[in-house]
From TrEMBL:
PANTHER family (UniProt xref): CYTOCHROME C-553-LIKE, MENAQUINOL-CYTOCHROME C REDUCTASE CYTOCHROME B_C SUBUNIT
Protein name: Cytochrome c class I
Matching SUPFAM superfamilies: Cytochrome c
Keyword check for Acyltransferase: no
Ranges where the Cytochrome c domain occurs: 43-118
A GO molecular-function annotation: iron ion binding
Any GO CC annotation of this UniProt entry: membrane
Pfam family of the protein (one): Cytochrome_CBB3
Residues that, per the record, bind heme c: 56, 59-60, 95
UniProt xrefs under InterPro entries: Cyt_c-like_dom, Cyt_c-like_dom_sf, Cyt_c_BACSU-c550-type, Cyt_C_IC, Cytochrome_c550/c551-like
Gene3D superfamilies per UniProt: Cytochrome c-like domain
Keywords per UniProt: Electron transport, Heme, Iron, Metal-binding, Transport
Amino acid sequence: MQKWIMSGLFFAACAFAVILMFTLPGKEQVAEQNNEAIPSVTADPAKAEATVKANCITCHGDQLQGGVGPNLQKVGGEKTAEQIYSIVTKGRGQMPSFKDKLAPEEIAHVAMWLSEKK
Protein backbone atom coordinates (compact mmCIF):
# COMPACT_ATOMS: atom_id res chain seq x y z
CA MET A 1 0.00 0.00 0.00
CA GLN A 2 2.81 2.41 0.88
CA LYS A 3 4.52 1.74 -2.45
CA TRP A 4 1.36 2.79 -4.30
CA ILE A 5 1.08 6.00 -2.31
CA MET A 6 4.77 6.86 -2.81
CA SER A 7 4.63 6.10 -6.53
CA GLY A 8 1.46 8.22 -6.83
CA LEU A 9 3.15 11.14 -5.08
CA PHE A 10 6.23 10.74 -7.27
CA PHE A 11 4.07 10.74 -10.42
CA ALA A 12 2.19 13.85 -9.23
CA ALA A 13 5.49 15.65 -8.49
CA CYS A 14 6.85 14.77 -11.94
CA ALA A 15 3.67 15.98 -13.64
CA PHE A 16 3.83 19.23 -11.66
CA ALA A 17 7.48 19.73 -12.67
CA VAL A 18 6.65 19.22 -16.35
CA ILE A 19 3.79 21.72 -16.14
CA LEU A 20 6.09 24.30 -14.50
CA MET A 21 8.75 23.79 -17.18
CA PHE A 22 6.30 24.84 -19.88
CA THR A 23 4.52 27.65 -18.05
CA LEU A 24 7.25 29.57 -16.20
CA PRO A 25 8.93 32.36 -18.17
CA GLY A 26 12.51 31.91 -19.39
CA LYS A 27 15.49 34.05 -18.44
CA GLU A 28 15.05 36.24 -21.52
CA GLN A 29 11.40 36.94 -20.73
CA VAL A 30 12.19 37.82 -17.13
CA ALA A 31 15.00 40.14 -18.24
CA GLU A 32 12.66 41.91 -20.66
CA GLN A 33 10.00 42.33 -17.97
CA ASN A 34 12.55 43.71 -15.49
CA ASN A 35 14.04 46.15 -18.00
CA GLU A 36 11.54 48.91 -18.49
CA ALA A 37 12.84 51.25 -21.15
CA ILE A 38 13.26 54.85 -20.13
CA PRO A 39 11.16 57.13 -22.36
CA SER A 40 13.03 59.39 -24.69
CA VAL A 41 12.71 62.91 -23.30
CA THR A 42 14.78 66.06 -23.48
CA ALA A 43 16.38 66.73 -20.12
CA ASP A 44 14.46 69.40 -18.24
CA PRO A 45 16.07 70.14 -14.85
CA ALA A 46 13.25 72.51 -13.83
CA LYS A 47 10.59 69.80 -14.31
CA ALA A 48 12.76 67.26 -12.53
CA GLU A 49 13.33 69.54 -9.54
CA ALA A 50 9.62 70.33 -9.30
CA THR A 51 8.76 66.63 -9.37
CA VAL A 52 11.40 65.86 -6.73
CA LYS A 53 10.16 68.67 -4.46
CA ALA A 54 6.58 67.42 -4.77
CA ASN A 55 7.32 63.71 -4.29
CA CYS A 56 10.77 62.91 -2.92
CA ILE A 57 11.88 65.35 -0.23
CA THR A 58 9.77 63.74 2.48
CA CYS A 59 12.06 60.69 2.48
CA HIS A 60 15.23 61.93 0.75
CA GLY A 61 15.46 65.43 2.27
CA ASP A 62 15.16 68.89 0.75
CA GLN A 63 18.81 68.79 -0.33
CA LEU A 64 18.66 65.06 -1.17
CA GLN A 65 20.83 64.49 1.89
CA GLY A 66 18.85 61.45 2.97
CA GLY A 67 16.65 60.72 5.92
CA VAL A 68 14.20 57.86 5.77
CA GLY A 69 15.50 57.23 2.25
CA PRO A 70 19.14 57.20 1.17
CA ASN A 71 21.29 60.19 0.27
CA LEU A 72 20.87 60.98 -3.44
CA GLN A 73 23.36 63.83 -3.75
CA LYS A 74 25.86 61.66 -5.68
CA VAL A 75 23.61 58.85 -6.88
CA GLY A 76 24.67 59.44 -10.51
CA GLY A 77 28.12 58.12 -9.65
CA GLU A 78 26.59 54.80 -8.63
CA LYS A 79 23.58 54.32 -10.92
CA THR A 80 22.66 55.06 -14.53
CA ALA A 81 19.53 56.92 -15.57
CA GLU A 82 18.00 53.59 -16.63
CA GLN A 83 18.67 52.04 -13.22
CA ILE A 84 17.22 55.05 -11.41
CA TYR A 85 14.18 55.00 -13.72
CA SER A 86 13.61 51.34 -12.91
CA ILE A 87 13.90 51.89 -9.14
CA VAL A 88 11.52 54.86 -9.14
CA THR A 89 9.05 53.07 -11.41
CA LYS A 90 8.98 49.73 -9.61
CA GLY A 91 10.09 50.70 -6.12
CA ARG A 92 12.68 48.80 -4.11
CA GLY A 93 13.00 47.93 -0.45
CA GLN A 94 11.12 50.56 1.54
CA MET A 95 10.72 52.83 -1.47
CA PRO A 96 7.27 52.57 -3.03
CA SER A 97 6.60 52.34 -6.74
CA PHE A 98 5.76 55.63 -8.41
CA LYS A 99 4.43 54.18 -11.68
CA ASP A 100 0.84 54.93 -10.64
CA LYS A 101 1.66 58.37 -9.20
CA LEU A 102 3.89 59.88 -11.88
CA ALA A 103 3.87 59.78 -15.66
CA PRO A 104 6.74 57.84 -17.28
CA GLU A 105 8.08 61.12 -18.69
CA GLU A 106 8.17 62.69 -15.21
CA ILE A 107 10.09 59.70 -13.87
CA ALA A 108 12.45 59.93 -16.85
CA HIS A 109 13.17 63.62 -16.12
CA VAL A 110 13.94 62.78 -12.48
CA ALA A 111 16.11 59.80 -13.46
CA MET A 112 18.13 61.84 -15.96
CA TRP A 113 18.53 64.70 -13.48
CA LEU A 114 19.64 62.40 -10.65
CA SER A 115 22.03 60.48 -12.93
CA GLU A 116 23.95 63.74 -13.49
CA LYS A 117 24.58 64.14 -9.75
CA LYS A 118 28.07 62.75 -9.28
